[in-house]
């Protein structure tokens, strides 16, 4: 028995040593982190809601860390192209995914070149933000009831934009279609910026735009706000009713942005990055800039963010099934 026990322990020693080496390496990597520039990969086009939020937060992170934090746009396929790029990156904390609600929607709608649960480590939810249902300044619609009335009278005539198939902008509109019993045609774009341009020009009738990318245009009179998607009115738009106030009960859709690292990132690096994000979001200048875009800072822990992302995926899976939503 003693010999067998000694043999078993001897066999385990290399494994224990290897685990110790990996742990020591993670601690060593985290000790000086960050000691080189960090890249935030935004998987959407420049000028969209996620991009605007990322650039503000990146600046705050850079000030806290004393290192450059660079935003790199890799748009397409509702965020899955940029996400796939990060999933294949070295898990050292220097290539970070800055994604949106589509991160939890994509897995229930399409085949992906990555596993959203296995190939990423959630770090922190950065912000939350309502979407604003917008139209061109010269639109005949002044509020959501105007649009619903016209859409019911003319099935299939009116259009809604999104920043890609399966995006939260599409999902919010699909919910509105179902709950308001209207037939409106989806026009997908590769990002929020080109969608906004076409809505401004009247090529598309309405768009559930992220407030971070549209609030300035609404305030400047370049877009008309018909409703907001959250359960409560936005403080920045006190005269714009919620979708719920317009008669669509229990409608509450809020977009979020958060940071993820590739799987394999050490717990020490995850903790360091989480701390960096939280300190950046605590800065008054960062909070002021975010507030001007209608963004609410969150700065959750990695553990809480992981639970939140899982719950979001369950929620949207139910919506996709109930509304028979598919993407090509």
Automatic annotation (TrEMBL):
One Pfam entry for this protein is TctC
> Which key words tag this protein in UniProt?
Signal
The record's annotation in InterPro entries points to: BUG, Bug_dom1
Which interval of the chain is the signal sequence? 1-30
Entry-linked PANTHER family: BLR1237 PROTEIN (PTHR42928:SF5), TRICARBOXYLATE-BINDING PROTEIN (PTHR42928)
Hey, which family's this protein in? Belongs to the UPF0065 (bug) family.
Query: What is this protein identified as?
Result: LacI family transcriptional regulator
Q: Which organism is it from?
A: Achromobacter piechaudii
């Amino acid at each position: 028995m003693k010999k067998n026990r000694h043999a078993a322990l001897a066999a385990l020693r290399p494994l224990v040593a290897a685990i110790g080496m990996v742990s020591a390496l993670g601690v060593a990597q985290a000790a000086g982190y960050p000691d080189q520039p960090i890249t935030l990969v935004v998987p959407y086009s420049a000028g969209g809601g996620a991009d605007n939020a990322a650039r503000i937060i990146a600046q705050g992170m850079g000030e806290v860390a004393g290192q450059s934090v660079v935003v790199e746009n890799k748009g397409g396929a509702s965020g899955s192209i940029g996400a796939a790029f990060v999933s294949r990156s070295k898990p050292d904390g220097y290539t970070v995914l800055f994604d949106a609600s589509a991160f939890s929607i994509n897995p229930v709608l399409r085949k992906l070149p990555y596993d959203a649960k296995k190939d990423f480590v959630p770090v922190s939810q950065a912000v939350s933000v309502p979407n604003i249902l917008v139209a061109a300044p010269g639109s005949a619609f002044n509020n959501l009831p105007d649009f619903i009335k016209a859409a019911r009278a003319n099935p299939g005539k009116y259009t809604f934009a999104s920043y890609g198939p399966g995006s939260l902008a599409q999902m919010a509109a699909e919910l509105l279609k179902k709950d308001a019993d209207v037939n409106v045609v989806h026009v997908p774009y590769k990002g929020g910026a080109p969608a906004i341009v076409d809505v401004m020009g009247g090529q598309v009738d309405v768009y559930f735009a992220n407030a971070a990318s549209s609030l300035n245009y609404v305030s400047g009179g370049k877009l008309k706000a018909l409703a907001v998607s959250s359960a409560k009115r936005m403080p920045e738009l006190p005269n714009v009713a919620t979708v719920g106030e317009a008669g669509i009960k229990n409608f509450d859709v809020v977009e979020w942005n958060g940071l993820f690292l590739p799987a394999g990132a050490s717990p020490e690096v995850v903790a360091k990055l989480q701390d960096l994000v939280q300190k950046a979001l605590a800065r008054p200048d960062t909070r002021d800039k975010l507030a001007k875009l209608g963004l609410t800072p969150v700065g959750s822990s990695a553990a809480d963010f992981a639970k939140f992302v899982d719950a979001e995926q369950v929620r949207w899976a139910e919506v996709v099934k109930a509304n028979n939503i598919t993407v090509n």
